[in-house]
Amino acid sequence: MTTPAPPPRASSSPATAVVATAAATPALRASSRTRRADEEARTAVQSPAAVVMVRPHHFTPNPQTAADNAFQTDPADVDATRVELAARAFDEGTRAAEALRAAGVTVHLDGGERAARPDGVFPHNWFSTRADGRVVLYPMHSPNRRGERRADVVDLLRERYAVSEVLDRSPLERRGIVVEGTGALVLDHVERVAYVALSHRADQTAVALVCSDLGHEPLTFTATDETGVPIYHTNVMMSVASRFALVGLESIESTIERRRVADRLSASGREVVALTRAQLGEFAGNALELRGADGPVLAISARGWASLTTAQRRTISRHARPLPLEVPTIELAGGSVRCMLAGVHLPPLSPPLPPR
């Protein structure tokens, strides 16, 4: 009796394998295109393609903000005159704007700042913009920072973008209720969450009101520096990009709050890059993802980037091209690259006007 030979397995036929591969390839390509389109759409929501920057004609570390800003350098410890400091800061701001433009980011570089506003280089504290066309004005903690709000900057936005409303919450500061813009509020525009480290610059009442305005859920917590003082602005310890987040988990002392922040970021589909307090002190957390000509770029302090480990850099570079910027003089004021950039999420006019 002869035992019949088993039929050949499909995989043993080269012709069959070629047919299967050919059939699968269009589906794989379509899936890859869909993923890429989803990631691009996510980046478009989270990360602006344009920013407003202000030239610092009168820069100096602000004595009114030194009490609760541990990242700030005491002016008495600076070996330079105020004129020299202002000149250095002006040059650093100009070079940063040029680097961003070279990366394909639209930069509206305001050159009209002439009054003695020491922190005028940090416009993101007094206004933010929304994809629905709103411009929000925020209540400020320090009296000498309230003069940073400028109608001409708002007019610039009106000239170039479809501004539907200017929502002015600044009168709250007269009652001592403050929330200093996207310094205090680190916004996840995709999931509509506002991460907020509570401090003198982020009053819980103001946070709740503004988050209601924005349609964001507030996720509040307490973060402290190495001396136990609350970190003055959330954005010096945290940055939310489209596919990753930098966050100083070590500075959130409550285990429950730390887990809540980390879990919420992970649930949003982001890789969490945990920063140490030492890295926060180098401004590694004060970064902003932007949309450049060739995809997302991460604007970050050069010293902050240098403080990161190889593994942390590798994680960031999977999702965005790092753009380290040298701003050592401006950092004397306790803020860095992210603080210099007011992101523009407004819909553009059609046709758009060229930047100025």
Structure notes:
This protein has 356 residues and is of the alpha/beta class. Helix content is 32%, strand content 18%. It has helices at residues 14-46, 82-102, 151-160, 181-184, 204-214, 255-267, 277-281, 302-307, 310-319, and strands at 50-54, 106-110, 127-129, 134-137, 165-168, 186-188, 193-197, 217-221, 238-240, 244-247, 271-274, 288-292, 295-301, 321-325, 342-344. The strands form 5 sheets. It has a 3-stranded mixed β-sheet, covered by helices on one side. It is globular. The model is unreliable at 1-20 (pLDDT under 50).
Name a few traits of the molecule:
356 residues; 32% helix; 3-stranded mixed sheet; 15 strands
List the helices and strands and how they pair.
Elements: H1 14-46, E1 50-54, H2 82-102, E2 106-110, E3 127-129, E4 134-137, H3 151-160, E5 165-168, H4 181-184, E6 186-188, E7 193-197, H5 204-214, E8 217-221, E9 238-240, E10 244-247, H6 255-267, E11 271-274, H7 277-281, E12 288-292, E13 295-301, H8 302-307, H9 310-319, E14 321-325, E15 342-344
Parallel strand pairs: 1-2, 4-5, 7-8, 10-11, 13-14
Antiparallel strand pairs: 1-15, 3-4, 6-7, 9-10, 12-13
Which series of helices and strands comes N to C?
A: HEHEEEHEHEEHEEEHEHEEHHEE
**Cα end-to-end separation:** 92 Å
Number of strands: 15
Radius of gyration: 24 Å
Global shape: globular
Structure annotation, total helices: 9
Helix % is: 25-40%
Mean pLDDT equals 86
Major sheet description: 3 strands, mixed
Beta-strand percent range? 15-25%
Structural class of the secondary structure composition? alpha/beta
Q: Biggest sheet: strands side by side, in what order?
A: 2-1-15
Low-confidence stretches: 1-20
